[in-house]
Each structure stands twice: as C-alpha cells, then as structure tokens.
Amino acid sequence: MSHGRDKSPETDDTWHELIANDPLADFFVGPSEQEHVVTSYGGDPFTGGQRLGREMAELLVFWVGDEEYAIDILEIQELIKLPTVTQVPRTSESIIGIISLRGTIVPIVELSRMLRLGTRPVSRTTRVLVLRGDGDPIGLVVDRVTSVVRIERESIEPVPRTMQTEVGDLLSGVGRVDDRLLIVLDLSAIMALLEHPK
Amino acid sequence: MTSSGSGGVSPEFIAEAQEIVDALGRDLIGAEQETREGREEVDPDRVNNLFRSAHSLKGLAGMFGLDAMARLAHDLESVLDAMRLGRVQFDKAALDALFAAVERAGSLIAAAAAGEDVPVAAIEDMGARLTKVARGDSNLKVAEPLDLFELGEDVLSVLTEYEEHRLRENISKGRQLYMLRTSFDLTNFDVGLAEIDATVKKLGEVITKLPSSKAADPGAISFDIIVGSDATSDDLAKAIGDERVEVVPIPRRRPKARPNPAPSGQGTARDLLDHIIVPENEGSEEAPSVRSVSRTVRVDIRRLDRLMNLVGELGLTRAAFLRITDAMKREHGFSGLAVDLYKEGRNFERRLAELQAGIMEVRMVPLENLFERMQRIGRKIGRELKREVRIETTGENTELDKLIVEDLADPLMHLIRNALDHGIEPPEERVAAGKPGEGVVKLSAAAQGNHVVVEVSDDGRGIDVKRTLALAVERGLLTPERASELTRREIYNLLFLPGFSTRTEVSEYSGRGVGMDVVKTNIAQLSGVIDVDSQEGLGTKVVVTLPITLAIIPALIVAVAGRTYAIPLNNVQETLALTAADVKTIERREVISVRGATVPLLDLRRIFMLPDEARPKTVYGVVAGAGQNRMALVVDDLVAQQDIVIKSLGRWLRNVPGIAGAAELGNSQTILVIDMVELLGEMSAEARSGSPRRSAP
C-alpha cells in the first residue's frame, strides 16, 4: 500500500495533514464520529487553542477492549494497519515484536497487555498508533481508532481513585466529552516503562 | 534536522575545534619525541604549526564568543610564539604545561558541545601557568638567546648594551651568526671596514666590529666582525669577495649545555622579559587564516547512515528484479524482454555495488586521531601514576568505520590504563629487573582482510598466572580443583570476568574491577574479539580484532522453529549437518564432536523460548568462537548467505541479550540478527554455573 506522502519522520507533520492525507483516514470508525471527527480544521494546532482564549487539547480517541482511551494527537506520528510483526525473544510480554517502518525499526507494543487487559484479537479495525517517542518511534496496537476530539486541557480530571490500579500510573487523567469518558494515557510513563521494564 | 546547540555553537565549530586540538596534541607529541631524542632543537616547522594551530583556535573561539577558550588559546599562542622565537625551550615543565593546556582546550570543546558556558575565570589557573612558562619564571629556565651560540665571555663582555640587543634580535629572527676575521692595513682600515659593512648589509646585519689583537703583522689591524645573516657562510664569503676575510660560522650550542644560564644583569633580564611577553601583532606577516583551505566537507555520520539505508533498500529492489526476471524466465522462456531485464538487472547490480563501496569508503577514517588521543591520555596517566613510559604507535593510517573508531576510544583507553597501571612497573622496579627505566606501550593497527587488528602491548611485568588463579578462587569465580586444570589461555580469560581485578588496592585509573569485562563487552558490541597473551616478566599483549565496518555485513540466514534469523558470517567458523546420532550428552549438556574436539550445542529453541516444536531429524550446527571457547548453534535450516544492513533495535529494545539488531530481507521481511559473541559468553557463564539456564526472562 502506498502512503501518498513521502515524509521523513522528523518532518513536522501537523495532525490534520496526517489524518487528511493518510489513506487510513477512511478507516476511522465510531458511533459518534460525525460529531467529533474534526474534518476541516483551520489554522495551526499550536496556536488554534490560544485563539479561543483557553488551551485546547486535541486528543486521538481509540478503543482498547471496552474502554475509550485518548492520546494527545501531537504525540502521534502516523497511523498504520498492523503489518507482519517480527517477534523478539527476551523482551517484556507487552512487546509483541518489531516492524520496519520505512527503514526504521519500531517496537510494537500491545497496549491491552500493557494495561493488563489481556490479549485482544486482531480485526479489520486494528491499528497501530505510531508515537513519535522523542525521536524513537513506538507502535501501540489498539482495537480501533474512532475520532479526534478537542477539549479544554483544564477539563481533564485526575484519575479517579477507583481506577488507581497497578496500571494507574500509565494514565494521566480522564476527559469527558458529552457522556463519554476518555482515559488519557501518560506517554512519558509508557516510555519510562518501556525503557525500564518492571 | 540536526539542531544547533542553544548557545549557537554549531557542530561544524565543534568538529573544527576538535581537529585543531588533535593537531596540537599530535605536534606536541612530536616535539616531545624530538627533545627526547636529544636533537638540537624542535623542528621549526613543527613549532610554527603549533603556533598556527593555537592561533586558529583563538580565532575560531573568538568567532563563536567562547571567551574562555579564546583566552586559553591566546595564552597557548603566547607560549608557542616565545618558543617559535627560541625564547622559551621545550623542556619538560613547558611541555607538561602545554599538554595540560591542550587537554583543557579539549574539555572546553566538550563543554561547548554540551552547551555549557564556561567563564573565563575557570581557566585562570591554566592561564597563569602558561604565562609563567612564557615568561620563563620560576622552575622554568629561560632560553637566553645569547646562550644559543658559542659566544665567549671575552666577546660578550665588551658588547655595548645596544649591540647585545641587536645580537639578541638577530638570534631571535633565527639568523645564523658569523665571525668575520679580517685584517687591514693600519692606514686605510676604515675603507676596508666600510666595504664589508656595505656588502653585509645586503645579506644581514653587522652587529659589532671588535678590534682584535691577533694580527700577526705589526702594520696591520685585525677585526672580528660579528654578523647576523640568513645566508650561508659560502654565500657570505662570495659576496664579500676578499680572501683576506675569513667567514667563520659561530657554532650553535646544544640546548642542554647550560642548564641554568644566569642573565647577565638586571637591565638585560628586564630587557629579556620585554621580548618574551609578545606584542599582539608580532608575526602578523604569516597571519594564519581561520578559514580552512582543505577541500573537504564534514558530514554528519547519520546522513551517511541514511544513504546506507537507502542503498540497503535498493538492494531489496534489486532482489525484486531478480525474482521478476526468474518468473519471466519460467513463464515466457529466456528471450526478448526477459533477457533485456536480466542484463539491466546485472548492470544495476554492479552500479549498486559501486555505490555501496563508495559510501563505505566515505565512512572510513584512519585511526590516526584516535591513536594520537590515546598517546596524550597515556602520557597523562603515565605521569600521574609516576611511570616513565613511551607510547609508540604504528599503523595509524589503517582505516576503520567511523562509528567503530568512536566506540573504540573507551575500550582502548581502558587497555592503555591497564598497561600503565598493571603492566609497566615503577622505574626502580624496572631497573632492578634489568629493564630500561622507561617502559614502552605499543599501540598498533593493521588491516587483515575484512578485519582490523588493533594491538596494545607493553614490556611490563606480565600477567601473574598464580596470583590470577588465587584471586579467581578467592572471589569464588573458580573452584580450587578447576583452577589446576585451566590452560594458560583460560586463565587469561578469567581477567574478563565481571568483578575480577588483580589489583588489591583501587587506583584512580584501573583496579575497580570493572575494566576488562567492560572492555570485552564494548568490543563484542562492535562484533569484535579480544584476546590476551602474556609472558611473566616480559609483558602483555592485548589483541582486538574488529570488522572493518558495521554497516553492511555478510550473513548466514537460518531458520529455527519457523522463524528466520541472520548470523553475521564473520562469527561463523563452519556449519555442519547433524543427525540425532551426532549429538551426545555430557553432564546433561548436549555436545557434538568437530574433528575430534568436543563442542557444546546451544539450542535457540530453548534459549529464545520458541514454541515447543520438536527438533527436526536433521539439523545444522553453526560453529562459532575460538579455541576452547566454542559452541554450535542448532538451527533447522540454512536458508541463504546474504549481505545485510544491521539496524539497531532502537532505544526501546537496546539491550536484548543475544540480539545484535535487525535486518530486512528482500521480501520486506524483518529478521533478527543473532549476537553470537554474546551467546557464547552466556554459554560459558552457564558452563561455569554448572547447570543450563532454563532461559533468560
């Protein structure tokens, strides 16, 4: 499959370009996407928030198991379908292997395992979120990507006590959009866990 | 993109400054060598080079607003200028100060690269030390210009102050001094003198005309005329053209002939100081340019990596061409377009190989700079450990992949430290053992096919086998029974065990017990092998064998339990087909026999915890290692032999034991590259611990 664009990883893609140009944008699925997928977005995401006077966060929303999770869209380099993964022995169990993404070796992490939700079946909607990872990309496998939402950063609440489980420190907060509950992931915690597995 | 540091210091600056500092170090070592050999003086070209390097560094640092470095370079320049003009000698104290200053310049560069701002005050100590050297204060002797020539006290004592000054000036300009012995008729000697004066002025300067009592003829008067000139004595004699004038060069004095010249009076000492503190603009006629004249381009190695990756990917395209050609051959026969495609494919292949070789060539750098750095470090360590030692290098033109050279610096430094700390004895001990007080550490490099062999050898006390064994037993690395069975080589290998250190007291430079095992690990990461040989009382030799490059390597592609792996071919000794009958069990360990030698088997299924699929009836053993330390890796199938581009697994998976990296095969398949050296190490660890490890977590 051709990616219609040829950008080196360090090119500073803006998120809307990323989604608009990615052929996988067609694969966005979700019941509420009509309301929330931002299809036309004017202006730069870095300054857009300030125009409104409040700092807005753009989050990519996806499902893992029965929960809706979200990641700051600026952390995401691209979305890809799950390619053939080469298993790597002697690594932590949430790493299912590596892929070569245009020549760069990228570890693929099964998010459900990292979140102690067990293994999820691969389906038509399974996607890999390729995170920038401070220049060393990481692939996160998720069940399906549904939408992009914009919410005020301030409205992201701390993780409720009931969710403070052993994976609690991988979560940075909970955002509410209408009656949906989005669990926002803490990428620096995920990166730290990858770098120093427990 | 590569971002420039916050302080505005560009990588180009860092690279250029580092080059200058390396050049300074190199020339200082040369200068030291020359003084050691007892030459009359340090090669003036070398001194000029040193001076120019310091000047360039000053200009460069000034351009980037690095005041501390500019100041240091300025002080360095002052000393070197004084040396260039013969006012300060290259003695030990001066050399020490210069080496220390160059060392400091190196750390300032490192600080600049890290974006740290170093205040000028931080180098004041060094500045003071250099100024002292430049002035010839304290423990340093001043090179009194007059002492450079054999001028008798009878001559010096009659010179006027001005004549003495002119004499110094001429000497400082590097002119040769001549004594013209003349004899004139008393009646018209003034005419004769005037003629000589006029002639000599074209070639130099008449410093003084001293009437001499040596005249044999009572009707004549003799003069000894002291002349400073750049001309040779023959030229001078020819120009004068008078047989009555004898041109005698005043011989230069050997430098160390008068260790403590006493300045001949208060006035002259002050005079001397004025000369030695060099005015800012002196020497401006050869104003060294900061702009480099070399026609070279500095390239970030990552760009070359990117090009190399592209070539690797083109290699995949080539493989696709070949597949298509094959398919066409099968379906349509080998004719028409299939033949054309085949030909073009071959053409492409050749060009690609050239391109690959070309990029490889660009990555290759000579070991020169690394060796020179090692000499400098070795010199410093030697001084601090109070060892008299000379570090000799050979084969510095040998080229290696830039990345390997970078990663070689640390292990090499460790080896040199070890040689100086554990190898070379203190001078008294050496003399007592009938060796010269000065030890020699040799650093050499030579290319051997696709490998480069780097050796560090010393003529020190060698490895004490008994003590090594005793310590290994004491530290629980070995049982006493086992100790008696070890071969010499196996004993030396104990040095590479983690936590082993043969020094009971901890010194600053080695002896923390982290040295040799870290060296071994670092070398192994470069796909290199390290080997030690020693003779008690005579010295130790450490041999490091490295692949010329890490970028593209020939590999054996193997299959195990449905998975494909690559094994770097330079780790493979041979491959053998094995059946169940070939495999024996000794102490619960599977072994095979390779031409009479017993070689243990290592099963990837077990250590990589591959799904428990039964081992096929016929398998292959891939034999790796050397000497006693060998193993055979069991694989199901040998798939192909192919050049691969090893890629790092990246930051997140950087230390997977037994995996050296990943590579892509033609069919867009990503495979893992096995680190045979590491597996070999794991296996010997298992053998020592006595039971096969089930597997690593």
Features:
heterodimer, A: 198 residues, alpha+beta, OB fold (Dihydrolipoamide Acetyltransferase, E2P), 5-stranded mixed beta sheet, 5 helices, 16% helix, globular, disordered N terminus, B: 697 residues, Four Helix Bundle (Hemerythrin (Met), subunit A), Alpha-Beta Plaits, 6-stranded mixed beta sheet, 21 helices, elongated, disordered C terminus
CATH topology of chain A: OB fold (Dihydrolipoamide Acetyltransferase, E2P)
CATH architecture of chain A: Beta Barrel
Number of strands of chain B: 22
Query: Average pLDDT of chain B, to the nearest integer?
Result: 78
Description:
The complex is a heterodimer of chains A (198) and B (697). By secondary structure, chain A is of the alpha+beta class. Chain A has one domain: OB fold (Dihydrolipoamide Acetyltransferase, E2P) (Beta Barrel). Chain A contains 5 helices and 10 strands, in the order αααβββββαβββββα. In chain A, the strands form 2 sheets. In chain A, strands 8-1-2-10-9 form a 5-stranded mixed sheet. In chain A, strands 3-6-7-5-4 form a 5-stranded mixed sheet. Chain A is globular and about 40 Å long. The termini of chain A are far apart. The model of chain A is unreliable at 1-52 (pLDDT under 50). Chain B is of the alpha+beta class and 697 residues long. Chain B has 5 domains: 11-143, Four Helix Bundle (Hemerythrin (Met), subunit A), CATH 1.20.120; 145-255, Ribosomal protein S6/Translation elongation factor EF1B (Alpha-Beta Plaits), CATH 3.30.70; 303-364; 367-547, 2-Layer Sandwich (Heat Shock Protein 90), CATH 3.30.565; 552-689, OB fold (Dihydrolipoamide Acetyltransferase, E2P) (Beta Barrel), CATH 2.40.50.180. Chain B has a 6-stranded mixed sheet with strand order 14-18-19-17-16-15. In chain B, a hairpin with a 3-residue loop joins β10 and β11 (539-547). In chain B, α3 runs antiparallel to α4 (92-113) and α13 packs parallel to α14. The model of chain B is unreliable at 1-7, 138-142, 255-294, 503-513 and 693-697 (pLDDT under 50). Chain A binds chain B through residues 10, 84, 86-91, 95, 98-100, 103-107, 133, 136, 138, 191, 194-195, and chain B through 1, 309-310, 312-313, 563, 607-610, 647-653, 656-659, 661-662, 664, 668-672, 695-697.
